[in-house]
Amino acid sequence: MRILTLNTHSWREENQEEKMSYLAEIIKERDYDIIALQEINQSTASPYLQDRHLRRDNFMVVLQQLIEKIGGPKYNSFWELSKVVRDEYEEGSAILCKMPITHTSCFTVSKSRDRDDVKARKIVKVTVTYKEQEIDLYSCHLGWWHDEIEPFEYQCDRLVEEMDADKLSLLMGDFNNNANLREEGYDYLIDKGFYDTYILAGEKDQGVTVQGEIAGWKGNKVGLRIDLILVNKTLTVKSSKVIFNGDYKNVVSDHYGVEVELELED
Q1: Contact between residue 122 and residue 150 where contact means Cβ atoms under 8 Å apart
Q2: Would you tell me how many other CB atoms lie within 10 Å of the CB of residue 53?
Q3: How far apart, in whole angstroms, are the C-alpha atoms of residue 115 and residue 99?
Q4: Deepest of 103, 184, 188, 257, by most Cβ within 10 A of its Cβ?
Q5: What is the pLDDT of residue 52?
Q6: Burial of 243 (0-12, 13-18, 19+ CB in 10 A)
Q7: Which burial class, exposed, middle or buried, applies to 192 when counting CB atoms under 10 A from its CB (0-12, 13-18, 19+)?
Q8: How far apart (Å, rounded) are the C-alpha atoms in residues 212 and 132?
Q9: How do residues 3-21 score in pLDDT, each as one tens digit?
């Protein structure tokens, strides 16, 4: 199984259409089974589609159209709104997957439920069946360890409370906590019983998914490993690679992506 997670920073990138077309080409080339995306935006001025509350320029919708147009995989998908950014964009997270989706849901993990609060956080979850077992997939975009208003511990605890411990779960996304720092958010996650596919991987690189300063990381001068793919059970992970970092595929966002290949038993 091949998995990608990427914070797309969508519709806020320079040369956005060029980058989106390139992203679609690489998705076709790499033929991912599961894709988790964060910061999937749609313009508040764009007209609604009939399906749910998606708008015509929803980045996930447009990306799927591009993938199919160039002959790439046909994905089942689910997107949910988390918050409104500067009254201009409705931002959310999404999951795309080849296998049929048997259940969809979303839940708030932040203290705030106000869609106009930039720190509001909502998790997208889908359940799929793969090799005769149910798997829960989560696209996550969480807050920061030192945030006194929206503490990471609270959000992580809410996430764990919503999970079914008996099912295999894949948590993918932007966790906004540097895995290279001890006794902060990353360690808090691992102490909850999660396994980092980067650590489990037989083949891996340096793992850096953010270089330098981006929103939420003002003044940062080091490489951060904040985009992760976690599991709640030990699995055989063949490889974990950072993608869209300029070395392995072109940059498409202010975050790099993570590509993981793992094996699931029948």
Answers
A1: no
A2: 13
A3: 31
A4: 257
A5: 67
A6: buried
A7: middle
A8: 43
A9: 999 999 999 999 999 999 9
